[in-house]
Amino acid sequence: MMTGTTPKSLFDRIWERHRMLEIDGNTLLHVARQLVHDGSRPAFQVLADRGIKVRRPDRTFATPDHYVPTVSRDLSAVVEAGRREMVLALDRNARAHGVTQFALDDPRQGIVHVVGPEQGLSLPGTIMVCGDSHTATHGAMGALAFGIGASEVAHVLATQAIWQKRPKSMRITVNGRLAAGVAPKDLILSIIRTIGTDGGVGHVIEYAGEAIRTMSIEGRLTVCNMTIEAGARAGMVAPDDATYEYLYGRPFAPRGADWDRALADWRTLPSDSDAHFDREVAIDAAAVEPTVTWGTNPGMSAGIGDRVPDPSAQGDEASRRAMAEALRYMGLEPGTPIASIPVDRVFIGSCTNARLEDLREAARVVAGRRIRIPAIISPGSTLVKAAAEREGLDVVFKAAGFEWRESGCSMCVGTNGDIGAPGERFASTTNRNFVGRQGKDVRTHLVSPAMAAAAALTGHFTDVRSLADGAGARPAR
C-alpha cells in the first residue's frame, strides 16, 4: 500500500499522527488512551500534592487487577492492609477525577490488558499507555502501546501527553503456519529465544507473515504481550479484517457513522510493502514446537522434545555463568529431557493467557480426565469468566480437579498474596519466569494453556500433541 511519496510503516504513521513537539531528539506525543490499575496510587498522589485534576478523564480508564483477591470478590480476603489500600485508593481516585472505572464489583472488571481490547478501548492507529510493562499487548489491535513509569503516569494524567525518544523499528516475519498443537505462546517464546531477551532493545517490533495474519486476535494479543520480554519498547500487528470484526460492536468502539469513518482510516494504517525497517528477522513457523522455559528468563526455553542445555557448550564465560546459575536456581541438570521434568503446581491465568480462547484450549485437553497435581485457573476478566461459564468450561475444569477462581493478576506476580511455596515447581501461562516472581524460591516454567493443562494431567511436562487423541469430549461452544 502506498499513501505518499515516502513509504511508511504502521509505526511511522502512528508516531507522526501523534507528534506534537520535538526538542533535542525528544518528541512530545499525544496519548489517545491511558489505562490505570491499582498500582497507580503514587501517580494520583502527585496530582493531589500539586492540586491538579486529570486533564482528560474521558480518555482515562481504570480497573483493579494487581492487588485484588481471586478467591472471592471480598477485599477482606486480601490479608495485607497495604494491598487492600491500593485497591481502595484506585476507587477513590477514579471517583474524585471522574474516571471510568471497572471496579471490583463491576461485571467488566479484569486484568487491564484483557479489559482494554475486550471493551474496545484499544483501537488501531492510537497511542496507549499504562503503568505496566505488558502494555505492549494492545499493539495487537494496531495501536502503539507501551508501559510507562509512575512519574510518567502522573504526567499523562495531568497533560494527556508524554515525552519519548523515537525508537528504531524491527519487523519479524513468521513464514508459514503454526502446526496443529502449537500455540501463539510457543511462537513468542521461540522468537525470544531466537533474538534474545535484549534482541529488541531500542525497537518497536511489527509482527508480520502468514502465521500472524492467520492467527486469532487473542493469539496476537499473546504475542504482543511478551514483546517486552525481548527488550522491545512495543509490539504491533497491522490491523486487518480480523481486527475490525473483533472490534465491531465493542462498548467503547466507534459506532454508526463514526465506525464507518474510523474503518476507512484504519485501512490506511498498514505498512507499505516497501516500508523501511531498521532490522528484519524471519522465523519459520513450521520449526516451532510446544515450548517450555527451563531457566530464569523467557529466552531460556526449549522444545518439549529437547533437553536442558549444558552451560559448558556456551561460547563465552558470561553465558556459561548465567546458564549455570539459572539451572542451580531451577534445580535442573544439563541433559535432562524437558518432558521428564516433574511439576508441583499449575497456574493458568495472566494478561498473557487467560482469555476465552486460552481457556477453551485448556479445556479441550482436560475434558473427561482428572489432574494429578493442584491447578488454579484465574480468568482474565469477569466477562471472560462469565462467558466460560456459559459454555460450561468451568464444569469441565472443576470435574477435572481445577480450582476455578475470580479474575485478577493473581499468581503472575503474586502482589495479591497468591504465591507458591519455596521450592515448588510451577507450569505457568504467565509472561515472566524471573527468580522469585511467583514466590520466594519458586521455580517457574512458562508454557501455553494447553501445555499447562497437559502438565496438570500427567504431573510433568508433556507434549500436548500426544494427548490430542482421546483427551475427552470437546466442550460445547
Structural features, described:
With 477 residues, this protein is an alpha/beta fold. It has two domains: 10-282, Aconitase, domain 3 (2-Layer Sandwich); 293-464, Aconitase, domain 3, CATH 3.30.499. The protein is 31% helix and 17% strand. It has helices spanning 10-18, 41-50, 81-97, 112-118, 150-159, 184-195, 210-213, 217-225, 241-247, 256-266, 317-330, 356-366, 382-391, 393-400, 449-458; strands spanning 19-23, 26-30, 33-36, 60-62, 100-101, 127-130, 144-147, 161-165, 168-175, 203-208, 234-237, 279-284, 291-293, 301-303, 345-348, 375-377, 403-404, 425-428, 443-446. The chain has a five-stranded parallel beta sheet with strand order 5-4-3-6-7, with helices on one face. Strand 3 (33-36), helix 2 and strand 4 (60-62) form a beta-alpha-beta unit. The longest helix is centred in the N-terminal third of the chain and has 17 residues, at 81-97. The radius of gyration is 22 Å and the shape is globular.
Gist of the model:
With 477 residues, the chain is of the alpha/beta class.
Low-confidence stretches: 470-477
Number of strands: 19
The CATH superfamily of the largest domain appears as Aconitase, domain 3
Mass-distribution shape: globular
Number of domain modules: 2
Spatially, the strands of the biggest sheet line up as 5-4-3-6-7
| Strand proportion | 15-25%
Distance between the termini: 38 Å
What is the level-2 CATH architecture name of the largest domain? 2-Layer Sandwich
CATH class of the largest domain: Alpha Beta
Instruction: Specify the helix fraction band.
Output: 25-40%
Number of helices: 15
CATH topology of the largest domain: Aconitase, domain 3
Q: Mind telling me the C-alpha Rg?
A: 22 Å
Sheet with the most strands?
Answer: 5 strands, parallel
Secondary structure class reads alpha/beta
Query: What is the arithmetic mean of pLDDT?
Result: 95
